[in-house]
UniProtKB/TrEMBL annotation:
The lineage of its organism: Bacteria, Bacillati, Actinomycetota, Actinomycetes, Kitasatosporales. The chain crosses the membrane at residues 31-49, 55-81, 88-107, 113-132, 153-177, 189-208, 255-275, 287-306, 318-337, 343-365, 377-398, 410-428. Pfam families: MFS_1. It is a multi-pass membrane protein. It comes from Streptomyces aureus. This is MFS transporter.
Amino acid sequence: MSSRGGGPAMLSHARITVALGVGQLIEWFDWTLYASFAVFFAGSFFPAGHGGETALLSAFAVYAVGFLFRPLGGVVLGHLADRFGRGIVFNLTVLLMAGGSLAIAVMPTFGQIGIAAPVLLIVARAVQGLSAGGEMPSSTALATEAAPAGRRAFHSSALFVGSGIGVLLASLLGWLLTSTLTDAQISGFGWRVAFGFGAVLGLVGLALRRSLMLPEQAMAQQPAPRPAGRDGHALRRPGGFVGTVRTHGKSVLRVAGFAVAATVGFYTLTVYMSTHLQVEVGMHPATAFKVNCIMLLVYSVLLPLSGLAADRWGRRPVMGWSALAMAVVLVPCVALMSREVAVTLPLLLVCFALLGVFHGPFPALMSEQFPAEKRGLGVGTSYSLVAALFGGTATYLATWLRSLGHPLWFFGYVAATFALAAVTMYVIPETASVPSDPERPADGS
């Protein structure tokens, strides 16, 4: 297919890109629902304890369970994507995420079935963790392989565009329900409405995704090819998690070097920042919500522009300079924030803009570290482990340091992850012009 000539080829690329973005939107919409409504449904699954704090802590402990299962989902589903094809797996991930939301929506309470209620909640979150861990590897691989030459970063930026819009829509749903229902109504049935809506959105998104993939579905279902040896037969390489780490260990470390900042930065700005604005800065909750929505819109718009820049000038300068700038300005920007929107908004704009520039080429760069036949498992291994170890602990670490009276220490930690990313971008080879094919040697050798 022509990569730049327009017509059916460009329409094909665009449809695949939109389909992948829809999947990320659904994943992050459903994933965000739990954190957004935990304060309302915690008492339904756990004993209230002292003032409800025990129930809420237990609910957030279950929230962490999803992160623990992300590496398993990345390894297992990433391997399936390499073995049986990208299309099968990223349709499966949407079903798992929507199924988890549906299960939570109809789940009996602790008062009805006792200890079985939190056990079932844990199972539902584990399923969603598997889904979240497997979605990024398969979608990243397909986005890279299906994109036209010279446009891999632009097309793969749709993954984070979908993530940002998913978080935004979940926040808007929370605002809508809290504006129209009382706290008692939300705690009674409103949170079930939210999870039910997430399940329905998942099924609608799956149908939309499948329709967008046609007639490209046949291509998406094909397993990634293996490179051939001199005798014409496919080369056999060590398989599974251990084989991937052994054969592509340098690539796994490279991804970890810049993925830590990508995951910690995302959870800090999109998930935790609104809490920081309310608790530490003293901003009114409604104002903090509006500011966060504005920032998410800015972030989502910048992602494809950053991808275009990385396709033209390379991944290293775009991601490297934005990471270095974030490492320098993040702590001062947070320290200067106040409840006055006129002061805080431009400071947040700087941080979200730098995050958007850094995230735009991120999926493409991850994928380009691995050959096609190990791309799903390679990304799944490295990214999912980083997301579980660093992304999943970000909000807890921020809350703990705030309780000790040192809220800025957490943002210093986030700045350090971007400094690590800047160093990583300095030492890794440029991959913008490297063909996305299975013949490319692993680890750039």
